[in-house]
Amino acid sequence: MQQYATITEPSFTHDADLTPARRPRGRPIHRMLVAFSAAYFTGALATDLAYWQAPDVMWERFSIWLIAAGLIMAGLASVAYVIDFAARRRIDRPAWPRAIGYALAVLLALTNAFVHSRDGYTAVVPAGLTLSALVVIVLALTALGARALTNRHRLGV
């Protein structure tokens, strides 16, 4: 059985202020791009480990492509950081430990790209594998340390 609704009079909202009390600022763009580069560098470590276990040149090629993609995203993250800083978006305080740790990881990854560009098994094992592991360790320690400093800064300690 169908029922029909009849509108007898229009009703309008008389609230003049429908805007939110506080404008959401959003997440800074550079933080999203840093996450992508960290994922690429972690993937490079995984493919280096795979190459160490099964020396198929495919894994070595995957590693260098992942490192290159991580470096490209790191460059984009640096540009986005400058834009976020200029636009006065909310950047976690203190930012210097995170920036220094990330710069160190990018320099290690750049060195790793040059090591991976050599030919043969020695391009990855042991130097490339060690550098990939160092990049991931530096990124993890930077993230943990920055989170601890940010939480400490928020608490006012």
Outline the fold blueprint:
Blueprint: H1 29-53, H2 57-86, H3 96-116, H4 127-155
Helix pairs in contact: 1-2, 1-4, 2-3, 3-4
The number of helices is: 4
Low-confidence stretches: none
- Indicate the radius of gyration in whole angstroms: 24 Å
Task: Estimate the global geometry from the Cα principal axes.
Answer: extended
Instruction: Work out the helicity level.
Output: 55-70%
Q: What's the count of strands? A: 0
How much of the polypeptide forms β-strand, as a percent range?
Answer: under 5%
Structural class: mainly alpha
Distance between the termini: 67 Å
Architecture overview:
The longest helix has 30 residues, at 57-86. By secondary structure, this protein is an all-alpha fold. The protein starts with 28 loop residues before the first helix and ends with a helix. Helix 2 packs antiparallel against helix 3 (96-116). It contains four helices and no strands. The radius of gyration is 24 Å and the shape is extended.
Features:
157 residues; extended; 4 helices; mainly alpha
Quick overview of this protein structure:
By secondary structure, the chain is mainly α. Helix content is 67%, strand content 0%. It has four helices and no strands.
